Amino acid sequence: MSCPDCYRGSVHEGQPRGQVTKAYGLDTYVVNPADGRPAKGIVVLLPDAFGWEFVNVRLLADSYADKGDFKVYAPDFMKGHPAPLYMMESMKIVSSDVGIFTKIRHGFRVLCAILPFLFINWPSKAWPRVKGFFEQLRKEEGASLSVGAAGFCWGGKQVLLLGRGDKIDGRPLIDVGFTGHPSLLSLPADINNLTLPVSFAIGDHDSYLSVAQAENIKAIVEAKPELARGEVTVYPDCGHGFCVRADHKFPDAVKQADDATDQCIAWFNTHFKTSA
């Protein structure tokens, strides 16, 4: 299952600079490298529970395009049914010292939002949408450009499914993956099944993945053959969701999130040089 921290965090300020279009069958936010620079490759962002329209996700896509010179897609893999943003406030209230009836009311509100989100977007139901997008992408733009997948929380599971190496026209759907604080995992099976290189960013206070589990993931991915070898970076004093929903009132939280962004970009740059 997912964890309560999958639905906690802060909403960031900023104006995304990309555009919304239809790409490979899905409504998609797309952003290109700034100043007309050519794209080094394509990065597809698989979001946390709050989906492709979440401003934090779009601003993160902008960062990948600006810092990495990637063309970035953030598709609607959730069929228009992400977790509603009001859950963040309700989760705060449920965890606070308010009266019991207020807690019950907001707890019921959270439950009514989580259940349909999980029903529609359970990994096995979402996978055909994700796979179909990447199949079309690989056939077209991905025929000449490297393709990376960056997934967070909910999207992290989908990155690991992509990392199994499913192919179209004899080529894997992606060349390389990155995930920040993935959820809904089957451990250790999802890690053992990886045949492509995946980089992990995990906080040492993650309520879904313990430090011991992170170390087990690290041991497995670092022991894989060179072409499938991954990495794990554990970030101190970070909880689940820190890559996307860090509270910008705290400079340390911003730095940790920025470091994870840099980790992702460096990972893709390394593998994009040698792939496709």
From TrEMBL:
Pfam family, any one: DLH
Dienelactone hydrolase domain location: 26-271
Gene3D superfamilies to which the protein is assigned, alphabetical: alpha/beta hydrolase
Classification via InterPro entries: AB_hydrolase_fold, Dienelactn_hydro
GO molecular function annotation: hydrolase activity
Origin superkingdom: Eukaryota
Name recorded for this polypeptide: Dienelactone hydrolase domain-containing protein
